[in-house]
Structures are given as structure tokens and as C-alpha cells.
Amino acid sequence: MNTKKESVPAVETKGLTKLYGGKAAVKDLNLRVGEGQIYGFIGRNGAGKSTTLKMISGLASPTQGEVSLFGKPLSDPVVRRRLGVLIEAAGLYPNMTARQNVVMKAKCMGLAEEKSIDQVLDLTGLSNTGKKQVKHFSMGMKQRLGVALALLGNPDLLILDEPINGLDPEGIKELRQLVLKLQEEGKTILLSSHILGELSKIATNYGIIKDGELMEQITRSELEEKCQDYFQVEVGDVRRALPVIQESFPQVQAEVSDARIIRIYGLSEGVELNRRLAENQVPVYGSGFHHIDLEEYFLERMGEESV
Ligand code: ATP
After folding, report:
1. What are the pLDDT tens digits along the chain (307 aa)?
2. Which ligand 1 atom is at minimum distance from the Cα of 212?
3. How far is CA 5 from CA 2, 12, 204, in A?
4. CB 33 within 8 A of CB 52
5. 172, exposed or middle or buried, with CB in 10 Å at 0-12, 13-18, 19+?
6. Measured from the CB, is residue 49 less than 6 Å from ligand 1?
7. Atom of ligand 1 at shortest distance to CA of 50?
8. Is 188 exposed, middle or buried, given 0-12, 13-18 or 19+ CB atoms closer than 10 A?
9. Residue to substitute in 18, 50, 192 for testing ligand 1 pocket (most ligand atoms within 8 angstroms of CB)
């Protein structure tokens, strides 16, 4: 008997939709974030990332559709306590220290233990900021303090909206390390960004949103596979070229990418392939190896020239 259970996702949305004045900001979104993942939610400005994250966090109500966390509806107060959120400004008090900010929020949440305050300050690297007031913090420190507040109550799921926006390279690096550390502690992290390269250094999974619709959900390894090297040939007639390629090189995977272009994955060199095509009277107008980088892949999926 197979006793292995299908794990319950940390986040699941079904048909999630939000209309603003009759216009859909989010359309029929079926998103699934597995436990322990760092899920990168990617899309250009206005694509619907914040609206989606707000609905998942209970900060905006869906026009239609459902959200469940760890297999329970979002309306379940027990499951809500497993969620920590940083969306938009963290609501920091500028004249207070990091610790005072954390104490203030802990009190509001009814958390009396000093231990939980020390824990979140330690985790976010803010234990040694002493008497320094938040107004003198760097953007990166403020952002980490926002994460510290979201971590109060030791949530299993953390939702961070554009956490690297406005950070300098050092701040980005620190936040990246923090997210990895939180994952190691067993937390699930759902974070949005329009900065692709930064996300790709940490995300285990991706969701790509465009005009309110989820274009694709993909794992890191699937993405790496899609971005592998391929050999591209431009031919006069793909219908004649394809069988020649498939018969001559049965181990490769050939994909027709447009009326004249075939992409071939798993080929180590191209001379023999060009020779076979020529032998079979298939004219070749151009050929060569290509590599899609992550950015190119995402931009293609988002239908954008640049973000
Ligand atoms: P950004 O990174 O710029 O915030 P985003 O991907 O998070 O982009 P959303 O903020 O979710 O996108 O916005 C999606 C769409 O919904 C946009 O067209 C936006 O103008 C619209 N929208 C968002 N919030 C509201 C609101 N409160 N009232 C009306 N329209 C809204």
C-alpha cells in the first residue's frame, strides 16, 4: 500500500478574480505554492501581483474565487495565524528603535514573550542596532525590520510584496540571505518582484502573471531545462527538414519554432546535421547554437520588451 500522502499546499487559489470598476485586475487565478518553497511571483508593474497577494493575505476581498492556506479556507482564524505579511509600507515608527518597533507590534498581537522579540531581531540581523532610530536606517535595514515584524508569531508562511524594491545591491544581498535562512528554518516564502535576475538567485518555483492572468507556473529545474542550449536551423521547408532530423538523430528533441526555424535540444555539434539536411536536398539558410537566459525567457512569457 502506498502511504505517501500528496502534501497539502501552503497556498492554493481557485478561480481567484478581482474586479475594480468592472475591470479585472486579477483573472481566474489558480496558483499553488508548495510547503517549503521560495515562490517567485513575477510580472511587470500593474500585472496584478499586489492585488493577488492582498487577496491571499486577506487584505482585499476577491470578487470571485477562493484562497486556502495549508488546506484550510482563509477565513479560518487558526490558519490565519500561520501567515506573516509584508505588503507595501511596513508601518514603522521613525522615532523608535528597531526593538521598540518590534515590541509595539508584539504588544498589539498579544505576544508577551521577550524571546520572540529577540528571535525576530536576531533572524533579521537587527539585534545590534541599539539606540539607532529607524529614521536613520538604510532602506535595507527598514525592509529587514518590516520582515521582522511579519515574522512575529513565528508564521509558517511569509508573503513579501516587492521586498527588494528600492534596495541597493548590499541591501538586496542581505534580504536574499535572509529569505534563504527563513527557508532553511522550514518556512514557505511567497514573494513578488519585477526584478528577474535577483529572484532567480533564490526562487525554487515561479509564477508568471501578465494582465491579471497566470501565464505559467514552473519549477527551477524545469526553467533550467527550458533555458538549456539548443541548436537552431533556418530551413526552406520545416516539413521536409523535421523527418530528416528525427531519423538521423533519434536521441534529440526537435521543436518547430516558426515557419522556417527548428530548435534542436540535446545536440552536441551541428556540422553533421547540416550535412544530412543538404544530402536530403533541404536548403539551410543559417544555423548555430543559442542559449536563452532567464531574463529573455521571462520577458518572452510576459510579452514585454523590457520591464
Ligand atoms: P505594481 O508593482 O505596480 O504594484 P502589480 O503587479 O502589483 O503592480 P496591482 O497593483 O495588483 O499590480 O494592480 C493591478 C491592476 O489593478 C492595475 O491596473 C491597477 O491600476 C489596478 N488596481 C490596483 N489596485 C486598485 C484599486 N484599489 N482601485 C482600482 N484599481 C486598482
Report:
1. 444 456 899 999 999 999 999 899 999 999 999 999 999 999 888 899 999 999 999 999 999 999 999 999 999 989 988 999 999 777 899 999 999 999 999 988 888 777 889 889 988 889 899 899 999 998 888 989 999 999 998 999 999 998 888 788 888 888 899 899 999 999 999 999 887 777 778 899 999 999 999 999 999 888 887 777 889 999 988 999 999 999 999 999 898 988 899 999 888 888 999 999 999 999 999 999 987 777 777 777 776 544 3
2. 14
3. 8, 17, 21
4. no
5. buried
6. yes
7. 7
8. buried
9. 50
43 lines ligand 1 (CB under 6 A): yes
Give the residue among 73, 132, 77, 72 at the shortest CA–CA distance from 99: 132
- Does residue 146 have its Cβ closer than 6 Å to ligand 1? no
Distance between Cα 275 and ligand 1 center (Å): 54
Residues 143 and 165: their CA atoms lie apart, in Å, by 9
Burial code (b: 16+ CB inside 10 Å, e: under 16) for 40-67 equals bbbbbeebbbbbbbbbbbeebebeebeb
**Dihedral angle computed from the Cα positions of residues 130, 131, 133 and 138, in that order, rounded to the nearest 10 degrees:** -30
Place of cell 536551423: 233
Whether pTM > 0.90 for this model: the answer is no
**Which residue type, as a one-letter code, is found at position 262?**
I
Q: Write the single-letter amino acid at 242.
A: L
Enumerate domains of the chain plus CATH numbers: 11-218 (3.40.50.300), 228-291 (3.30.70.100)
